[in-house]
Each structure stands twice: as structure tokens, then as C-alpha cells.
Design a protein that fits this description.
2 domains; Rossmann fold; binds alpha-D-glucopyranose; alpha/beta; about 475 residues; globular
Length: about 475
């Protein structure tokens, strides 16, 4: 169970740590000790770090470090929590506070400082997203002469290029590069901004992202979101490694959140989950009618805009149900709230974050809708496949790499895939999936195809291991 989760990164980081340790690699993961998780963490204070100071601009921040041994591989995997209440005791993990950049600059600097104090020189610093994207530049500037890190290399994984960590130029002093400040992108600088992710892309030894299709998409417009040139100018490009699924958490045979389990050989439990989901969501829909599930952050990325027209139309035309769990932007919340008022027996919306309900929606729905505008990888479509819940997805990023459109005649394929980012395309996809559902023999073929898919992490992790080996033996660019 992740310590802090708003989306897929938590699942991915947790699984990668577990898998690497199970292959006998030593992993030390760092994350902020967010105030809201303090009680759950309850780690041991790390004496080598004690009360350390990191200076950002003219402010000294004191931090300490707590450590927890991983439950699965205590000898090989440790989680370190950077405890700086001045910056991390906030109501949310991510904020829009004016010092947001400082929170993650402190975090990045504290990671490097703590490694020094622990006398721990990793072969590879594996950074994720903009929050730690300055680390490769620190290694090449502030820490360039630290003998300990002479052999350390850096990898940046982009989980979502839509979040770049853009800060005002006034933050340059906080970054603390001293004489090396000239390494900051000068064009941006003149325009009054500093872009954290851009510097990660420029200075990391390797850049990866979380699916092969997204790796291609971000090297171009529009999905490069302004960073396509930066990515294109890396001689080694961007490597796409598809995320995996941790089937210890997400498999209907063993899912700890479910009261009824099921498998491809015996799917009866799926119906029991559906009954439970209908009841829990307060829906009054015959169990023989299709129910569409969604579990999502409610942001523009997820394609909710496409549903404003298409969902009411489908609900008018077809006898189906919809159950949505999500949190995020108020305009999307309002849309689903209104929809559930308009169709109280067929549409349920639950606002907020609820792990147990997320599992029940996966298990009890017939279809799972992800109309994303873009999707670096996406995990729920892979979870859905394992639960025999047919994904309806747009042909983008990791969705394209993990779902094949069903060919009803040949009986091949695993879901319903649509191309265009517009309401008619979603309407077509929903209508098509419902048509398939009406022929239960055909539908069961599709369900079996879906459940036979395997996105297990133990396959994906070998790609990371090969990458670590390669980068470890490389000379510094
Ligand atoms: P992203 O990271 O862009 O949000 P992913 O598909 O990679 O998308 O991962 C989303 C993860 O977060 C899944 O494990 C999903 O079940 C979970 N999730 C998203 N919203 C909620 C919510 N409101 N309640 C519970 N789990 C959620
Ligand atoms: C991001 C992406 C999502 C991906 C996840 C984990 O949040 O939006 O597509 O699955 O990171 O890599």
C-alpha cells in the first residue's frame, strides 16, 4: 500500500522498488514526509543526518531523515522520508502555494546531502518528474567535484510532461547553482521563467518515459507541450518502458479489497461484485445491463470534456449504468454530480479518493472508460483487463500500447479503441462496446481475451535493470 498516492506514480514507484529488491538490487527510495502521512510512517530517525540544514536563497531550512525498511525486502530496500515540516506540513501533497518550487528543491537537495552524510553513493539516481529534475544538473555542477558521486549517473523518468515545474526567474537564487547559474536555460531566463523538467531532460544521462507510444508522442507537437525540441536534441532520444501491474494488489483472484474473488476459469464472482457495486452505488439497474466504470483524477488530461455531450446521449439511447469515482477540478465534479441527479437510478458519482471503491469498480463494472486526451501510460486499463472489465480507451500513449481493438469476427482483441479526440468518437466507442455486450457469447470471448493479458512487473523490471547496467557502465556525457 503506498504511503502517499494521488495517481499512478505511487503504484509504479512502489512496485519498482519491490521488484528490484526481489532481484537483489539495493534500493533506497526517498520521498517527502508529508504532514498527512506522518503518523502512518513513524520511521526511525537517521542519526548520520541528524538535524541538517539546506539553504534556499537566503532561508535556512532544517530537515531530518526518517527511515523505514521495506516490508517485503527489509535488507535491500529502504524508504527514506525527508522531514521538513516548514515545507511539507500542508493539507495536500501537491499545492499551488507560492513556495511549491522550494518544497521540491529542498527535497532534491536533501536527497543529495543525505547520501553524502550516509556515505552512500548510488550507481544510479533515478529521478521522477519535475520534482527531482534538478538533480542531474546538481550532479554536474554543485556536486561535480564530490568524489563520492564521481561514478553516479542519473536517469529521469517522465510520468507526465504536462507538469513541468515552471517557476519564476526569481527562484533562480533558490536553486543555488552559484557560478553555474549560467547553465540555466537562458531563453527561458530572459522570458522570466525557469523550467525544472527542461533541465532534467537536458542534463540527465538517460531520459525515459512510461510507454513506447508516449515516448514518440512527446518528441513532437502537441504532446511534447513545448519540450519536444529539448527531447529531440538528445542524441539517445527518450526510451519508453511500459509500466507494469503489481498483481499482488490488482488481481481478482486475491484482491484484498474484494469479498468475492474470481478468475478466468470461474467468473461467477464478478457478478457478485457487480451486485455489490450496484447496491453500494445506490443504482437501480438490472444486473444483466452493462455498467461502465471510471476511476480518475478529474483533470483535462483525462478527456472528461468529451463526455459532456456524449454521455447524456448514450444514457438516453441505451439502457446502461455508469459509476464514477474521482476528484479534481470542480467543473468536472459538477458535470458528474448533475448527471447523477438527472439519472439517479443509472449514474452514481462519488467525489474523493477511495481505494476500496476503486477496486470494487474495477471488479464489478463491465466496461471501464478512459477517453484520455493524452495518457503517458495509464494503469487502470491494465487493471481492468485482469478483472475482465473491458477498457474503452483512446488510441494514445500507454492506452495504445496495452489495449487492442476487438475484432468481433475473428474473436481477437481486448477492448474498444477509438482514435479521434471528439465526442462522436466516444459515442461510437460506447455504442460499439454496448453492442458487443448484447451478444453474451461474443462478450465472454472478449472477457477471456482481456483476462489472459499479462502486464506483470517482473517482465518490465528487466528493462530497467538493463538500463541501469548500461548507464552505470557509461562514461559521463
Ligand atoms: P494518473 O497517474 O494519471 O492519475 P494512472 O492510470 O497511471 O493515472 O493511475 C491512477 C491510479 O490512481 C490508479 O491506481 C487509480 O485506481 C488511482 N485513482 C485515481 N483516482 C482515484 C480515486 N479518486 N480514488 C482512488 N483511487 C484513484
Ligand atoms: C502519470 C500519468 C499516467 C501514468 C502514471 C505512472 O500520472 O498520467 O499515465 O500511468 O504517471 O507512470
Amino acid at each position: 500500500m503506498p504511503y502517499a498516492k494521488t495517481g499512478g506514480l505511487a503504484d509504479v514507484a512502489g512496485a519498482l522498488i519491490r521488484e528490484l529488491a526481489s532481484l537483489h538490487h539495493e534500493v533506497r527510495a526517498f520521498m517527502p514526509l508529508y504532514g498527512t502521512i506522518r503518523a502512518a510512517v513513524n520511521g526511525k530517525l537517521v542519526p548520520e543526518v541528524g538535524r541538517a540544514i539546506v539553504t534556499l536563497g537566503s532561508t535556512d531550512y532544517e530537515y531530518s531523515l526518517q527511515v523505514v525498511d521495506s516490508r517485503d525486502s527489509p535488507s535491500l530496500a529502504r524508504i527514506y522520508f525527508v522531514d521538513c515540516p516548514a515545507l511539507f506540513d500542508r493539507a495536500q501533497f501537491y499545492t499551488t502555494d507560492p513556495d511549491e518550487h522550494r518544497r521540491f528543491l529542498l527535497f532534491t537537495r536533501a536527497v543529495l546531502k543525505s547520501c553524502q552524510l550516509l556515505e552512500f553513493a548510488p550507481d544510479v539516481f533515478h529521478c521522477n518528474d519535475w520534482h527531482s529534475a534538478f538533480l542531474p544538473l546538481y550532479l554536474r555542477t554543485v556536486y561535480a567535484h564530490e568524489p563520492m558521486f564521481k561514478r553516479s549517473r542519473s536517469i529521469l523518468t517522465i510520468h507526465n510532461i504536462g507538469y513541468q515545474g515552471i517557476m519564476p526567474v526569481a527562484a533562480a537564487g533558490d536553486i543555488g547553482l552559484g557560478a553555474a547559474e549560467s547553465q540555466l536555460d537562458q531563453t527561458d531566463f530572459k522570458q522570466g521563467v525557469v523550467n525544472a523538467l527542461k533541465h532534467g531532460i537536458r542534463f540527465a544521462d538517460v531520459v525515459t518515459t512510461v510507454s513506447p507510444t508516449y515516448a514518440r508522442e512527446i518528441c513532437d507537437e502537441p504532446l511534447g507541450m513545448g519540450l519536444q525540441r529539448e527531447l529531440q536534441s538528445r542524441p539517445d532520444g527518450v526510451l519508453g518502458i511500459l509500466n507494469g501491474v503489481d498483481y499482488r494488489d490488482w488481481d481478482p483472484r486475491v484482491d484484498p479489497y474484494l469479498t468475492s474473488h474470481f478468475s478466468p476459469q470461474d467468473t461467477r464472482g464478478k457478478r457478485l461484485n457487480k451486485e455489490q457495486l450496484l447496491e453500494q452505488s445506490g443504482l437501480n439497474l438490472p444486473v444483466t445491463r452493462p455498467i461502465i466504470g471510471m476511476v480518475t483524477r478529474l483533470t483535462e488530461q483525462k478527456g472528461i470534456d468529451l463526455l459532456f455531450d456524449s454521455l447524456p446521449e448514450i444514457l438516453e439511447l441505451r439502457d446502461c449504468g455508469l459509476t464514477v469515482l474521482g476528484s479534481g477540478e470542480p467543473r468536472y465534479q459538477r458535470f458528474f454530480e448533475d448527471l447523477s441527479k438527472r439519472y439517479p437510478t443509472r449514474v452514481a458519482f462519488r467525489s474523493g479518493y477511495d481505494e476500496a471503491l476503486a477496486h470494487l469498480i474495477e471488479a464489478g463494472s463491465d466496461m471501464f472508460l478512459m477517453p484520455s486526451r493524452y495518457e503517458p501510460c495509464g494503469l487502470n486499463q491494465m487493471y481492468s483487463l485482469r478483472y475482465g472489465t473491458i477498457p474503452i480507451v483512446r488510441n494514445t500513449g500507454g492506452l495504445a500500447d496495452s489495449v487492442q481493438h476487438f475484432d468481433a469476427r475473428a474473436g481477437t482483441g481486448t477492448g474498444c479503441v477509438f482514435n479521434d479526440y471528439d465526442p462522436p468518437a466516444v459515442r461510437w466507442a460506447l455504442g460499439t462496446a454496448i453492442d458487443w455486450f448484447e451478444d453474451q457469447t461474443r462478450w465472454q470471448t472478449l472477457v477471456q481475451n482481456a483476462m489472459a493479458q499479462n502486464f506483470s512487473w517482473d517482465r518490465q523490471v528487466s528493462q530497467y535493470v538493463m538500463l541501469y547496467e548500461r548507464v552505470r557502465n557509461s562514461s559521463k556525457a
